[in-house]
Amino acid sequence: xxxxFAKIYSVVGALxxxxxxxxxYTIASSGFTTVAGQIANSANGSETRSAVQxxxxxxxxxxxxxxxxxxxxxxALIALSWLARLPRRTRVLTSLLFLLWLxxxxxxxxxxxxxxxxxxxxxxxxxxxxxxxxxxxxRNWAFGGRGSASTATLTAGH
Length: 158
Ligand code: HEM
Hints:
single chain, mainly alpha, 7 helices, binds protoporphyrin IX containing FE
């Protein structure tokens, strides 16, 4: 049964990495949506906001994924790390993902308050989330003939 939970941990972990990828993609697209709107407005010489700027679906997607989907995924991972009886270090580091997300959320609000030099850490913290996420998924990968990546590392020395 724990082996099954370990596999679900791997799948949910991979899903989380895709969500992180979506966050980078949506925020870059949102930035270009804003810039394109500004260029269009200055070319027109009018004050009218372009439709794309008014409805920035990319920013909305970034918010929905960041506020709801990512934290739920991380909470599921924490539960799975216990159910699968993964090593204590993995359980602690999986919980650290949630702390990093809290920090990420807080930094967004610092940004909304206009303190951009500090809010910029949101971009760096995103890299920490990605790095730790990749490490955990690779380290605890439960598929493949030789079991987890750590097993593969151990056997590679022989
Ligand atoms: C692990 C990846 C990421 C997560 C989990 C994440 C999470 C969040 C959250 C929770 C918010 C607050 C949304 C709201 O309350 O409306 C937010 C907003 C924002 N994030 Fe991220 N973010 C990630 C990556 C990034 C990256 C890589 C950048 C840019 C380098 C970025 C830039 C922004 C900006 C500019 C906002 C404010 C505008 C908006 O809400 O669209 N984020 N993010």
